[in-house]
Amino acid sequence: MLKSIFTLALILLVGFFSAGLPIEINSLIYIPVEQSISYSFQPAYTEVTNPHLVRFSMTTTSTAISIKNSPGNNIKIEAYKDGNRIDGFNFVEAVDGATDEEMTLSRDKPLVFQVDISQKTTRLPDGSYVFKFSGNNEKLKNIEPLELNVSYKSSPQYYKSLNYQPKNSMGLVLYFPSGDYNYLVPITRFVPYSTAVLSTTGENLVKGADPVTGLLKTDIIPDINKVYYSGSTVYVDINSKSDRLKDNPRLFHALDAVVYSMTEIPEMKRVQFMLDGKRVEEITPGISTSAPWSPETSPAAYLLLNTFDRYLLFPYRPNTAEAKTIRDYAYTLFDTMKTGIEGDLFVEPVLPEDVELLNVYYINNTIKLDFNRAFLEVYRNDRQKQYIMMDSILYSFTTIPGVKYVKLMIEGNDDYTFADNKLINSFSRPLFINPENN
Questions:
Q1: In this predicted model, what pLDDT tens digit does every residue of 7-66 receive, in sequence order?
Q2: I need a surface site. Which of 94, 230, 295, 358 has the fewest CB within 10 A?
Q3: Is pLDDT of 105 > 70?
């Protein structure tokens, strides 16, 4: 067939030359040539653990082809877990060159792209995956993708809660949204001491979360003109010209973060939002600010959020509608601390399955929790997990109305030490949760 095409082309050429007409050979006829294109990784590998940047190469062994550059969209990546395709994961292609710029792929000049598939970028839970890489250009659609076996195994650090603050400093408990905006996470930031606690809290909220926490650096808090209080109400005056106020799909989460952070300050119970010094019915359409906002105060189980860099405790409020007594609340929280949140692979239980709550007592603002012996055994050689358990218990059970202190026992006996604490003592809620820096 190919020989026949060449023969036909030669006949046409002879005919044109015989007529004495000028010709342009390149525009006369196009003879398709099959491209021999392949993909590879540089360096070559088929399996990686905790990858960061991956170099993906396209090579041709035949004629050169031209591809238009689409920065950030040159590479197509699919991820599979146990044979099932995963939707909604992220990756970042290194941007290089201008959009629609011609890129030539030739025998001596392969195209190389760099892609970030780190766990913090993909936001995929620990586990093993199969990634399929291919070029996203229409000219490359028939080329089989290149597969890469990827394993993620995070090793987050936990900074235990504190009851002290550095000299000449003060601790601000600030709430920031998790990466998926499903939860508000309290972070303690130590700043230079100031008598203007409300204003300092507002300024630090606007700065957003520090990346060292593993939370996404999202600046969503609108600019604040001033903060003041009257009685137990905090007045937050927001600048109407703030860019973060306009078309901000996360504004409700941002205002909620302000409410929870401001009411961490002693004696502050609610937040009234203002706009340029005036009370308004709605700060934006659909978000009512006619009345003060108050934080949710129902009992909360403090669960463990894995941000890959850090373990962070955060309050999660289970359904306690049927709870009638302190004992009922206690068992509901305990069950939630053991099970976590179904379907959320980034939230981990804080209590192992073997731990059982044998009994609950309440006397004079103190809740006594009697656990089985597994409480001491499960993390005997893991001090970090002991700190997590201890902090979670103290924060969780002191959210029950009337509970100020927690007393731990093991099968009726308190002559033990756990997480560097002698259980003969009763414990109050720690002051500073999730210190931003160790």
A1: 444 444 334 333 343 333 333 333 344 557 888 888 888 899 999 999 988 888 777 888
A2: 230
A3: yes
Domains of the chain (ranges, CATH numbers) = 1-32 (no CATH), 37-152 (2.60.40.10), 169-288 (3.30.300), 301-428 (no CATH)
Task: Provide the mean pLDDT of the chain.
Answer: 88
* Contact in structure between 140 and 39 (CB atoms under 8 Å): no
Tens of pLDDT, residue by residue over 168-181, are 999 999 999 988 88
Sheet (strand 366-371) strand order: 357-363, 366-371, 405-410, 426-428
User: How far is residue 98's CA from residue 354's CA, in Å, rounded to a whole number?
Assistant: 58
**Which amino acid, one-letter code, is at 81?**
K
What's the per-residue H, E or C state across the chain?
CHHHHHHHHHHHHHHHHHCCCCCCHHHHCCCCCCCCEEEEEECCCCEEECCCEEEEEEEECCCCEEEECCCCCCEEEEEEECCEEECCCCCEECCCCCCCCEEEECCCCCEEEEEECCHHHHCCCCEEEEEEEEECCHHHCCCCCEEEEEEECCCCECCCCECCCCCCEEEEEEEEECCCCCCEEEEEEEEECCCCHHHHHHHHHHHCCCHHHCCCCCCCCCCEEEEEEECCEEEEEECCCCHHHCCCCCHHHHHHHHHHHHCCCCCCCEEEEEECCECCCEEECCEECCCCECCCCCCCEEEEEECCCEEEEEEECCCCCCCCCHHHHHHHHHHHHHHCCCCCCCEECCCCCCCCEEEEEEECCEEEEEECCHHHHCCCCCHHHHHHHHHHHHHHHCCCCCCCEEEEEECCECCCEECCEECCCEEECCCECCECCC
Q: What average pLDDT does range 134-138 have in this prediction?
A: 87
> Which candidate, 244, 253, 243, places its Cα nearest to that of 215?
253
Label residue 434 exposed, middle or buried (CB < 10 Å: 0-12, 13-18, 19+): buried
Q: What's phi and psi for 33, nearest 5 deg? A: -120, 125
The whole-number average pLDDT for the span 351-375 is 97
State the pLDDT at residue 35: 54
> Which residues 6+ apart lie within 8 Å of 65 measured at CB?
35, 37, 104, 105, 139
Whose CA is closest to 89, among 65, 117, 127? 117
Q: What is the dihedral of CA 337, 338, 341, 343, to 10 degrees?
A: 170
